[in-house]
Amino acid sequence: MTAPSTSLSVSHEIARKGSCHETTLSVTLSYEDRFLRRKVLKSDQGESFLVDLAHTESLDQGDAFVLTDGRAVRVEAAAEPLLAVSGDELPRLAWHIGNRHTPCQIEATRLLIQRDHVIRNMLAHVGATVEEVLEPFTPEGGAYGHGRTHGHDHSHSHGPEAQAHSHSHAHSHAHGHDHDHAHDHDHTHSHSHSHGPAHTHDH
């Protein structure tokens, strides 16, 4: 008696939303899980398949994994913990969020971001209304429609006679998992040091 095959269907390519691929399968993924290169996933219908892409990709709701047997698995965005941001000056609030390189889903009357207590406090301080929600997260893509940008903004002040430091960092990350890693990092550093009235250094 022949043992049943345990080989997985494989996807080496993706089809962007709006393509002609007909899908009978779907897979529901969080925002973080929609950023991958090589990983075994399980469809909502219970079928496991291997994603093995040439490069790390960021997928949006409506994109699809194209399997080598001709089928396609549609990507759905999972509901996840978010912050809904609203206020009278939504463009100004969006600027504050963008200034921190935080992924943001822009809608007509509100902004959606991942939960972060530091950013939440900052937004409340500038007059925003912030509430916790559980919804799918489909933020704006990078400058070319796809990709992701993560950033950190830190500033430290140690008094007029000590050092003053200002750091601005912008990072772009591409990570593949399952023992395969692809990394793409862009780092920008701006440092200003002041040591009292006698010395000034700029780097």
TrEMBL record:
Basic and acidic residues bias locations: 150-159, 175-189
One Pfam assignment: UreE_N
GO biological process: protein folding; protein-containing complex assembly; urea metabolic process
Residue ranges with Basic residues bias: 190-203
Subcellular location(s) per record: Cytoplasm
A molecular function (GO) term: unfolded protein binding
Location of region: Disordered: 137-203
Limits of the UreE urease accessory N-terminal domain: 10-73
Protein keywords: Chaperone, Cytoplasm, Nickel
Protein's UniProt keywords contain Iron: no
Domain of life: Bacteria
This protein's GO CC annotations: cytoplasm
UniProt keyword annotation of Hydrolase present: no
SMART domains: UreE_N
Family matches, as InterPro entries: Kininogen (IPR002395), UreE (IPR012406), UreE_C_dom (IPR007864), UreE_N (IPR004029), UreE_N_sf (IPR036118)
HAMAP family according to UniProt: UreE
Function: Involved in urease metallocenter assembly. Binds nickel. Probably functions as a nickel donor during metallocenter assembly.
Membership in a protein family: Belongs to the UreE family.
Protein's name according to its UniProt entry: Urease accessory protein UreE
Source organism per UniProt: Alloyangia mangrovi
Name of the gene this protein is made from: ureE
